[in-house]
Amino acid sequence: DLLSIASSCSGNVLFTRLHVPCCALRCCAVLLHANSCCTVLCRAVQYMHMAEADILEQQTSATAQRTWGRGVIHPLDRRYRVWWYVTVLAAAITGWLIPFRLAYLSVRYDNTHVQGAASLEVALSCVFGLDIIISFFVGFYDSHGLLVMQNLPVAANYARNRLLIDVLTTVPFDAIVLAALRLPEGPGSRYVALVGLLKLGRMYRVGVMFRNVSYNLNLGLLSLTLLRNFTLCLYLLHWAACGFWYIALQEGQHDLTWVAQEAAIIEGKSTAEVYIFSFYWAIVTFATLGYGDITPSTTPEIVYTIVYVAINVVVWAYVLGTITLLVTKQDEETGQYRQRMSALNTYCTANNLSADLKHTMAGLLRLHMSLSNEALGDEQVLAVYPTTIRRKILRQLYYTQLKECYLFAKCGVKFLDALMLGARVELFLPKVWGASCTPAVDAAARYGVHMQVHCMDDVQGLL
Question: Do 106 and 140 meet the contact criterion of CB atoms below 8 Å apart?
């Protein structure tokens, strides 16, 4: 009969939920004095709660026994992570070099005046070519969170997801076309060199890097957000400055271009000084200051400026939105606390509550707000973990307190494990219940914790 009662409860009413009718608690107290019945009941509860956990452990063990493929690299291997950050640095350099060379330097790789930039670009392409080969041997986590380390699935996953974009951004299509057509330096060769902008696709690694670093708790979220937004704005300004000069260069710098309008200032300047002048126009336009000293005059310049300003609107909205969200989050939490405390004061005044009770309620409110802000509750922290892990953690936290309670003194470890898995823990100020509870409850109050039940008076009677 006892076993049938436990089975009919489906593990949700009698022992795994402590919000139960008083008669069930009395039944529990009687059962605890019958050792044989308690043993049978404990096994029933144990099987109901641990079946899923045992299956999960078996699956995990089977996964751990899988052999790695030949030459496959673990995605979290330290040496591979170092290499991956090298590719991130190479992608960041590519994002600056390619537009600058297109606008301010020769686009032909055989030009002796740009051998340094051309050699650097070739070296970057070699880095990403080697990364393509390595990526065919880097394991991955599948949609179920399981590590895949077999050669064929690893290679197929890379070929399906990243191979195409890596090939398009690594192969120097611009150099191949220029060498095949043998175009001289001029507007035609610079138009063909626009194909080289495909290499900017390598910068997706920079975005992945910022996304991964955002999970590092050693870095402040506000500082990381500021650095990410600054990087975004810096690259946007750099690309805009190169674009302004490229358009004027393609139009031959005739009298209507912005370069011709500022010829008295720009003429005879070095490449670095010309770049600074272009960067100044880009940042003034980005900030929407509109001094009027430099204005677009030709149709390509006007179209380019329209597109640039439209992009600026989106970037400004993103930057201001992310920063505002982080700055106001703490103010929102403080405002919520002040609002609830003000409501408590109004309630106590309206209902003529005593000063001691008001002080106790205020302390409990502060405790609740601090725990909710820091997410220290068992439910919030342990909800994502499997039953086996939760059982070990709860046993370490509350097993001693439960064994000191008379109601559970003779219970076994497995029964208390099942009980703690379904119980809901509440924290309160020490000795708050000491004036109205029995010595056993006072002992629990010393820990500042109790397991909430349906009727406190009935529990005191049982204790």
Answer: no
Instruction: Look at strands 425-427 and 449-451 and give their pairing.
Output: antiparallel
Residue type for position 166: D
pLDDT in tens, the chain (463 residues): 333 333 333 333 333 333 333 333 333 333 333 333 344 334 444 444 444 444 444 444 444 445 677 889 999 899 999 999 999 999 999 999 999 988 888 766 655 556 778 888 889 999 999 999 999 999 998 888 788 889 899 999 999 999 999 999 999 888 888 888 887 777 788 888 889 899 999 999 999 999 888 887 777 788 888 899 999 999 999 999 999 888 888 877 556 777 766 666 777 778 888 888 889 888 988 887 767 667 777 888 889 889 998 999 999 999 988 888 877 776 676 777 778 888 888 888 888 888 888 888 888 777 776 665 555 567 667 777 788 888 888 888 888 888 888 888 888 888 888 888 777 766 666 655 544 444 444 444 444 444 443 333 333 333 3
Q: Please return the burial class of 270, using the count of CB atoms within 10 Å of its CB with bins 0-12, 13-18 and 19+.
A: exposed
Nearest to 440 by CA among 412, 417, 460, 458: 460
Q: How far apart are CA 310 and CA 319, in angstroms?
A: 15
133: closest CA among 86, 173, 73?
A: 73
Q: Residues 139-164, buried b or exposed e (16+ Cβ, 10 A)?
A: beeeeeeeebbeeeebbebbeeeeee
Alpha carbon distance 298, 328 (integer Å): 44
- What is the distance between the alpha carbons of residues 42 and 283, in angstroms, rounded to a whole number? 72
Asked whether the beta carbons of 137 and 55 are under 8 A apart, the reply is no
DSSP 3-55: HHHHHHTTTTSSSS-S---HHHHHHHHHHHT-HHHHHHHHHHHHHHHHHHHHH
Does this model's pTM top 0.85? My answer is: no
- Rounded to whole angstroms, what are the CA distances from 169 to 81, 89, 228, 314? 21, 15, 23, 26
Q: C-alpha distances in angstroms, 219 versus 83, 225, 333? A: 22, 10, 21
Helix ranges restricted to H, 136-181: 151-161, 163-170, 173-181
Q: CA Rg, the chain, in Å?
A: 34
Identify residue 220 by its one-letter amino acid code: G
Tally of CB atoms within 10 A around 82: 9
| Residue 451: strand, helix, or coil | strand
Q: In 3D, which of 254, 121, 280 has the Cα closest to residue 193?
A: 121
